[in-house]
Write a structure and sequence with these properties.
Oligomer: single chain
Shape: globular
Number of domains: 1
Mean pLDDT: 84
Strand content: under 5%
Low-confidence stretches: 329-345
Structural class: mainly alpha
Radius of gyration: 20 Å
Number of helices: 15
Largest sheet: none
Length: 347
């Protein structure tokens, strides 16, 4: 058999793998971006942030348990070992910062700002990891990185000013705040969510190597689910039922929550990880940049949020800055994790 005859099937197999990886990364990015749309639809049906987070995590918990079990079963000998006490506390800490706190702050902020601004802020994750590395690990900024940071934050400022000007249209749950103050409040909350997840990225590198990314995500998410359920119970009890109540919620909230837990939380984690496996982290990250653009389209379609040239320009500017950062040398573990939930599960 000739070399050409052998190379043809191999080339076709490579093309098929890259096509599958591209489709997985693309579908995962779009699914992740739907989280904000679903949450804001639930708010319109009378749910509050505590019940949205609680329902999402309660429904996702069995799937994350299955993910952690399957990843431990399928990984190498090291991945099947029981957690040490140190690893257990590390998983709990990462679950707190990366999924519990980040998710709670994100859903609180979504009450006040548009889905497009929320996604633009969350896409600052790579820049926050870089800045944390400079502050705490002694990393040095190169002038290209400084330029990329300036571009990214300028883009977020443009999107923020867009929300500021149409605050009465995007901030529909201001809870006693005027519309513009609500936009400012929501932006701060989502930025703190992105910062919390960036801290998770900084601390997850060593544990990813020990447990594997799928097992770590499953275990940390399970810990976060239990924290969210505890938060739900405490908030409901202390507020005498004013927060986290379910009795008044229509059936649509339950359906949307099931969609949030499956199609916007667990499924995209697997899709993006599969995309990373087939394409590599760098290419998958670039495919994932369709996320903010899909958020704009989905928000316009389902939420009637305004789409303007300024919004598109600001979002494009954010993506340009993050694209420049993604082409720079960065620590491998944060890079992979940023691909998995650039915002999100944040999500």
């Amino acid at each position: 058999m000739t070399l050409a005859a052998l190379s043809s099937p191999l080339s076709a197999l490579t093309r098929d793998r890259r096509t599958q990886g591209f489709l997985c990364a693309l579908a995962g990015a779009v699914a992740f971006s739907g989280k904000a749309i679903v949450a804001k639809l639930m708010y319109r049906h009378g749910a509050d942030a505590i019940s949205v987070v609680g329902l999402r995590m309660a429904m996702a918990l069995p799937m994350f348990l299955l993910m952690a079990w399957w990843a431990g079963r399928s990984s190498g000998a090291g991945g099947r070992l029981p957690l040490s006490r140190r690893q257990l506390w590390q998983v709990i800490g990462l679950g707190f910062t990366g999924y519990y706190l980040a998710s709670t702050l994100d859903f609180l902020g979504l009450q006040y700002i548009s889905a497009s601004l929320e996604r633009a802020i969350l896409y600052l994750n790579p820049s926050l990891v870089l800045l944390l590395s400079v502050c705490f690990l002694g990393a040095r900024l190169r002038w290209v990185q400084v330029l990329a940071l300036m571009i990214s934050y300028a883009g977020v400022l443009v999107v923020f000013l867009h929300d500021w000007d149409v605050a009465h249209m995007v901030s529909d749950a201001s809870q006693g705040l005027d519309a513009r103050s609500a936009v400012a409040m929501g932006s701060v909350l989502v930025f703190l969510s992105a910062l919390s997840y960036a801290i998770y990225l900084m601390g997850s590198g060593q544990l990813v190597q020990q447990l594997g990314s799928m097992r770590l995500v499953g275990l940390a998410s399970c810990a976060a689910c239990l924290m969210c359920l505890a938060q739900w119970w405490v908030a409901h009890a202390l507020s005498e039922g004013r927060l986290g109540g379910l009795d008044h919620l229509p059936w649509q909230v339950w359906g949307l929550s099931a969609l949030n837990a499956t199609a916007c939380t667990v499924l995209p984690v697997w899709l993006v990880m599969r995309g990373v496996q087939l394409l590599g982290a760098s290419v998958a990250a670039q495919v994932g940049m369709v996320g903010p653009l899909s958020t704009i389209w989905l928000a316009s379609w389902f939420l009637d949020e305004p789409v303007t040239a300024r919004l598109m320009m600001g979002t494009g500017t954010v993506l340009l800055g993050i694209l420049v950062l993604s082409r720079m040398n960065r620590p491998p573990a944060p890079q992979v994790k940023t691909v998995i939930e650039s915002g999100g599960a944040k999500d």
